[in-house]
Amino acid sequence: MTSRSVDSAAEVDVLVVGAGFSGLHLLHRLREDGYSVRVLESAPEVGGTWYWNRYPGARCDVESVDYSYSWDDDLQQEWEWTEKYPAQRDILAYLSHVADRFDLRKDIELETTVTGATWDESASRWAVRTEDGREYTAQFLVMAVGCLSVPKEVDLPGLEHFGGQILRTWNWPEDAELTGRDVCVIGTGSTGAQVVPALAEVVRRLTVVQRTPNFVIPTRNRPLAEGELEAVKAEYPERRRRNAGHSAGVFRSDNPKNAMEVDAAERQATFQERWEGGGINFLGSFADLMFDQAANDAICSFVREKIGEIVEDQKVADLLKPDSYPLGAKRPVVATDYYETFNRPNVSLVDVRANPLEAFTESGLALANGEQHDFDTLVLATGFDAFTGAFTKMEIRGRDGLLLRDVWQEEGPKTFLGLSSAGFPNMLMPANAGSPSVLSNMVTSIEQHVSWIADLLAEMRARGLRTIEAEPEAQEKWVEHVEEVAHMTLWPNGDSGSWYRGANIAGKPQLFMPYAAGVVEYGNALERSAKSGYAGFVLA
Length: 540
Ligand code: NA7
Prior knowledge:
Layout: E1 11-17, H1 21-32, E2 37-40, H2 49-52, H3 73-78, H4 88-101, E3 108-109, E4 114-120, E5 125-130, E6 135-143, E7 165-168, E8 182-186, H5 190-200, E9 205-210, E10 216-218, H6 228-234, H7 236-244, H8 264-277, H9 293-310, H10 314-320, E11 333-335, H11 338-341, E12 347-351, E13 357-361, E14 364-367, E15 372-374, E16 377-380, H12 389-392, E17 395-397, H13 404-411, E18 427-428, H14 442-463, E19 468-470, H15 472-487, H16 518-531, E20 537-539
Parallel strand pairs: 1-2, 1-6, 2-3, 4-17, 6-18, 7-16, 8-9, 8-16, 9-12, 10-11
Antiparallel strand pairs: 4-5, 5-6, 13-14, 14-15, 19-20
Helix pairs in contact: 1-14, 9-10, 14-16
């Protein structure tokens, strides 16, 4: 390893791509451990996904006090969250504060887009290239690029004919002004369900284009009550321990009972209580919701009834009711006043499943049955090339010129423990495909990985080892295991088109990418490998 102070920033021990939750934590931890670290970030500010996704209504569905770092007690005691669920601007302010407070900015290069990286066998180092022609070399390349950072290619027929303005939720302009406009939103996933109610309040007319309806759970966000934050702070270490001890990486008071073992009245009362409580806790109504089709059918029926009660026009309500997949198979959406928004006189729903979108015109869009909808602003909330997009976009060449894009586009993201891919030594991938990632509180999963990576690097330094890489056989077994575990649940079922398994993008290899066994089981697998001398990896 080179010494902590490097002569040239172009040569470092660890190069981290991305300055979101993972990148900032990695920089802090590895720098403390004595490595030279450089973080390259394409945005003009830190924050990762929370910098880019600044559309109206953007909010996290994990509680503020849990969607934050646990590794510095002063930080968690000082920071003042104001609402139960954090808005995008609050998370961004928090991450910006972390960057300042721990003096991280001096090792972060903003507005620096990595375009490729090549493994140099003779030097056992990565050579990393940026869009503006800079080059770096590093012993370790850590891809802290996020699971949802590259938008899906927009596949809308004739979009080039549309004459109005087009806004993208994943790169929302700071100065977007939509008051009094006629707006159309395409996409009703987590993003669409958040942006729709926020826009409905300011625009003149809002047309919502829906292809597949989603199950939308009410957030029930609220300001934190007096004393609430102080109470959390008083028991923070215990709270963080409980979070790390729950499969979702955030403590939920899950009901241990199975839905079909209680009578209909108890089932209804339980769903009702959790629906009123709001948020992702609704999924903890019963233990078997993701395992037993009948239990899942029961919670689906409950939500469909709610949609029917909330939405006044029953034709619209029926269109909003999902019926082709289990609740959870497509990422459950948590949003505020989503269904209520369809009662507003300025909002209309256009179903493009029964009546497909034929083409965009100068003034709007035309449907297959000849219907025309006019608007002056189009908002795209069409989703992401999840998990793999950030990797396949770059030219990453491992041993013998092996191109990661070729391997992953053919076979999907094959890794051991989600951390390393055979043929790409010293490239580590925190909280992405092959680990619990999006099925957990991302911050808990990131902390789990950062501490494991820090231990790994310390061990390699102590033993004078230069490289680590997934063993091909262990990798094959891990990918099979991830798939097998997913198939023990209802997650991969139904006609959901879910990005969990690459099904939102035509031609993308379909395999279930996050590890469904959860943070605790996964942590055990990490520990087993580390304790047995990093079994499943080749160290040299
Ligand atoms: P999602 O969940 O992938 O949602 C994208 C939405 O866009 C979804 O409703 C899609 O319908 C719709 N879409 C995409 N392409 C089209 C076309 N061509 N025509 C009509 N509708 C289309 O992305 P989000 O950004 O909402 O959420 C991603 C995650 O980010 C979220 O879960 C959080 O974790 C953060 P479809 O379902 O494919 O029929």
